[in-house]
Structures are given as C-alpha cells and as structure tokens.
Specification:
Blueprint (H helix, E strand, L loop, with lengths): L6 H6 L5 E6 L14 H17 L4 H7 L2 E2 L2 E8 L8 E11 L3 E10 L5 E10 L1 E2 L4 E2 L4 H6 L5
Antiparallel strand pairs: 1-4, 2-7, 3-6, 4-5, 5-6, 7-8
C-alpha cells in the first residue's frame, strides 16, 4: 500500500489545519530518555480529535450513537530527531484528504521554534457502518472538517 502523503511534503507544508503546543512529560519517555515511539501517535490523535471537536464533531456522541466507527486502517511514521523529557514541541495537522469511505491525515511534530522536525506521521481511517460492518461514505461533516483550519 502506498503512503497517502510524501513525507517531505509534510515536512515542507505551509498550511497548518491545527496545532497544539506540548511539553514532553516524564511518563512519555522510555529507558533511553527519549519519547517512547507510540506517544507520537497519541500526540497526533489528540490533535485529530481536537480538530474534529472544534468543527463541531463530538466523537463521544458519535461513539454513543453506535452507528459509525472510524478505525485506524494504517499508521506510519518517520522519526527524524529525538525528543527528551521537558522538551517543548508542537504537533501540527498539516494534511488531510478524504476519499469515498476513508480519509488520510498527515502530521508534523516540530520543535517549539519550528526549527527542527522531530517526526512526520500519517494515518488512514476508514468509516464503517456498525450495523453492517461494511465501509460507508465519509460523513459530510467530517469531510468539511478536514478542509477547514482550526
């Protein structure tokens, strides 16, 4: 399966759909004193959920409706520079593309001054009808949210 975005395009992206500043917490680091790699996906997920929330899409309500699921189909990352305990950084949603029944997101994790890219991540999510277990079209509200900066 081909990556949805070119990693270098994510590094160079001028448009930022959403960004969140953070600080590396003690519980985020591993025995090597660097951020444990799954944490990068948590940082990206937090920005994705916040972006949908800002667009009026409440994931809790969506989950409670038991009609639609949006599982992760693919996740990949390109780690470039480590982050350490107490480092300040920014997670940015820099690319989004909706297809028929799935959508792709591209993220960049950069230093607070944006001088260094620590990682780029890509995720692909598929929309499933929980009644049938089959793929279903990306809801219009999500499609709109992915095209709006927040």
């Amino acid at each position: 399966m081909q990556s949805p975005f070119d990693p270098e395009a994510l590094v160079a992206a001028a448009e930022v759909l959403r960004s969140e500043p953070r600080v590396v917490r003690f519980q985020d680091v591993d025995a090597a004193s660097t951020v444990f790699y799954p944490r990068f996906f948590e940082y990206a997920s937090d920005v994705y959920v916040a972006h949908l929330d800002t667009a009026g899409i409440k994931l809790r309500s969506l989950l409670e409706s038991r009609s639609l699921a949006i599982p992760l189909r693919r996740a990949e990352s390109d780690f470039r520079h480590p982050l350490f305990f107490s480092d300040r950084f920014v997670t940015e949603l820099v690319a989004a593309r909706a297809g028929g029944t799935s959508f792709s997101l591209g993220f960049r994790i950069v230093s607070e001054d944006r001088a260094r890219v620590h990682a780029v991540l890509q995720t692909v999510h598929v929309c499933l009808d929980l009644g049938t277990g089959r793929p279903t079209p990306v809801p219009d509200a999500i499609r709109r949210a992915l095209s709006v900066a927040g």
